[in-house]
């Protein structure tokens, strides 16, 4: 990553439903100290799901909300009628026409829309999380113009840390992985998780396995029922912990884990992208979320907005956020992990930062 660019990156959203759907878009603004007028406008177009989806939309939105409070910016989000390039383009244009010329978009599905928008709206700035602008043609190379930034994360490192924590907690048993679509960010979570389990088995006296039949990509991010079914099948096969990197499919897995725990089973879920602890609560403050493999999306969004305010927007760059710049990790609070486990995970994290542990972003020698 080029020097001079802020450490983390995360995006945020605002509040509204698409005008084309018949609802009036909601807007949020911050008055700043002394009620001064906000000095620039930040817009967001959501991907599939809502701003409380416990994933990319929510992470982005939280970063934007923070910017509204701390940096005196006005903000708005628009939710498209669907997830096509044309529908995204409509909302990007609506934001631009309303004066929101700093636009954040979460997810690879925006790649072609931003590819065109960065040329059409040359005086606007675009932040694309987990994707890079390209034409969408087979083999197309990324084209990040000076008014755009592409952001990626080292999901494999977050998955690795979650794998180490899981192995140390279970000590001996089986794990599973439920992914949404079989795309690089999701695959890297899986591969990193398995590398973390393998590292713990070889160095930290654990005996945790993952069988091929317990690694499944459901094919979507919104099929809650399928997530419940897949989780039930894995738990029935003796799996103790499931790492669910699957959006709404993961919500289904969490629901199944809650039911099982309330019936006396000892099963867990590892969350993804954001801290999902609250989503796993089934009684009081007890949760089925063992920990979460976190991408600090909110911080990334905030940092990009701050960079723009300070005249340091890293236009034309593709940024990678990883352990070295604290862009990935586990949540700050992990109530279900012991202090000893957290200490060992922190040691592994520091070894990754120092380059002593290399977590590969591809499928290599994984647990069979």
User: How do the SSEs run, as a string of H and E?
Assistant: EEHEHEHEEHEHEEHEHEEEEHEEH
First-to-last CA distance: 34 Å
CATH fold category name of the largest domain: Rossmann fold
Second rung of CATH, namely the architecture of the largest domain: 3-Layer(aba) Sandwich
Number of strands: 16
The gyration radius over C-alpha positions equals 20 Å
- CATH class term of the largest domain: Alpha Beta
Q: How many individual domains?
A: 2
Level of helix content?
25-40%
Major sheet: size, sense and barrel closure?
7 strands, mixed
The averaged pLDDT comes out at: 89
The number of helical runs is 9
Q: How would you sum up the global shape?
A: globular
Low-confidence stretches: 1-35
Estimate what percentage of residues fall within beta strands: 15-25%
Main-sheet strand order equals 1-3-2-4-5-6-15
> By CATH's scheme, which homologous superfamily of the largest domain applies?
Response regulator
Given helix and strand content, the structural type is alpha/beta
SSE inventory with pairings:
Elements: E1 27-29, E2 41-45, H1 56-70, E3 74-78, H2 85-97, E4 102-106, H3 111-120, E5 125-129, E6 148-153, H4 155-170, E7 172-179, H5 184-203, E8 207-209, E9 215-217, H6 224-236, E10 241-245, H7 248-262, E11 268-273, E12 281-283, E13 286-287, E14 289-295, H8 297-309, E15 317-321, E16 328-329, H9 339-353
Parallel strand pairs: 2-3, 2-4, 4-5, 5-6, 6-15, 7-8, 7-9, 7-10, 10-11, 11-14
Antiparallel strand pairs: 1-3, 12-13, 14-16
Helix pairs in contact: 1-8, 2-3, 4-5, 4-9, 6-7
């Amino acid at each position: 990553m080029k020097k001079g660019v802020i450490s983390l990156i995360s995006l945020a959203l605002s509040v509204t439903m698409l005008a084309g759907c018949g609802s009036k878009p909601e807007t949020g603004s911050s008055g700043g100290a002394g009620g001064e007028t906000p000095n620039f406008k930040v817009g967001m177009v959501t991907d599939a799901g809502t701003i409380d989806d416990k994933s990319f939309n929510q992470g982005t939105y939280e970063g934007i909300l923070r910017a509204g409070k701390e940096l005196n910016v006005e903000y708005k989000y628009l939710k498209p009628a669907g997830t096509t390039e044309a529908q995204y383009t409509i909302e990007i244009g609506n934001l631009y026409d309303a004066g929101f010329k700093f636009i954040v978009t979460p997810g690879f599905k925006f790649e072609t829309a931003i590819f065109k928008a960065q040329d059409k709206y040359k005086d606007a700035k675009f932040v694309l999380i987990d994707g890079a602008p390209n034409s969408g043609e087979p083999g197309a190379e990324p084209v990040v113009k000076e008014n755009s930034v592409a952001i990626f994360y080292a999901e494999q490192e977050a998955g690795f840390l979650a794998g180490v924590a899981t192995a140390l907690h279970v000590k001996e048993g089986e794990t599973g992985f439920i992914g949404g679509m079989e795309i690089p960010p999701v695959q890297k979570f899986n591969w990193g998780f398995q590398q973390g389990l393998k590292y713990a088995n070889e160095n930290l006296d654990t005996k945790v396995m993952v069988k091929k039949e317990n690694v499944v990509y459901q094919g979507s991010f919104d099929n809650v029922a399928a997530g419940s079914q897949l989780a039930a099948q894995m738990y029935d096969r003796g799996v103790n912990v499931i790492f669910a990197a699957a959006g709404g499919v993961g919500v289904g897995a969490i629901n199944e884990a809650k039911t099982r725990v309330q019936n006396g089973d000892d099963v867990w879920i590892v969350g993804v992208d954001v801290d999902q602890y609250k989503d796993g609560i089934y009684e009081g403050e007890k949760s089925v979320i063992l920990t979460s493999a976190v991408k600090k999306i909110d911080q990334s969004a905030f940092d990009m907005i701050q960079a723009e305010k300070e005249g340091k927007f890293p236009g034309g760059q593709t940024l990678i956020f990883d352990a070295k710049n604290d862009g990935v990790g586990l949540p700050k609070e992990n109530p279900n992990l012991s202090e000893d486990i957290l200490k060992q995970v922190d040691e592994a994290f520091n070894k990754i930062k120092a380059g002593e542990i290399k977590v590969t972003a591809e499928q290599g020698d994984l647990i069979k």
